[in-house]
Give the backbone structure.
Amino acid sequence: MPVKTFWEHVEVMRWMLIRCLAVVAVLAVGVFCFKGFVFDGIVFQPCRPDFVTYRAMCRLGDAIGISGLCPHVTEIEMININLSSQLMTHISMSFYVALVLALPYLVTELWFFVSPALYAKERKPAVAAVAAFFFQFFLGLALAYFLIFPLTFNFLGNYQVSDRIVNQISLNSYISTFIGMMLAMGLVFEMPVVAYFFARIGVLKSSLLRRYRKIAVVVVLILAAFITPSTDIFTMTLVAAPLYLLYEFSRMVVSRVEKRERGNSD
């Protein structure tokens, strides 16, 4: 295969970016047309008292005889105070959803652009890393959507410093919190992937993660208490357990990399 010049690589990258933008744009237009499904069926579902997470927690509470596990959910009024906010929210949310839907295609385009520069022995680990990235990212999105965001919204939306003050959540506040939490959890769940690469270059050691395990437990519990400020230990555990397991899984990944490196050196 002839070696491409610098400007030929630039031309290939230019067309790759054009195709990626075109796919995102088409998907965004398509998502824009399904306003009811996107907002009422997905984005605003955690506001509803019959959201799947609340119903599952109530069933679990009934099964184990702990009524406090069933969250008290009330309808929270949402308002819009800016003239163009609803239209801009519709457009921006269409773009965000389209970006998530297009992510497999975007990564595929990036792979076809980068793969010719990889050696044959590097391609298999690269494919595994991409698969792990997708799995961890969407797992983080699922945890945030079905557990962390509903519990956080239900608590903060009903929290009052005085009965004289009625909570009326603005549309912008809800959407920014929703998007921010989805993105944050998606990135947090990339911890094992990041730990893997840091371990490969020798920056991160499993002994370091073991040494700071107690601190990690405290940090996870504080985070869980902030997300679900409740005296109910079971609700806190529902949030804290996945985060701590993520830390332990990262430690195991680093430990496995170290064993493999020692085996190769022998």
About this structure: The mean pLDDT is 83. The chain has ten helices and two strands. Strands lie at 78-79, 169-170. The two ends are 36 Å apart (CA to CA).
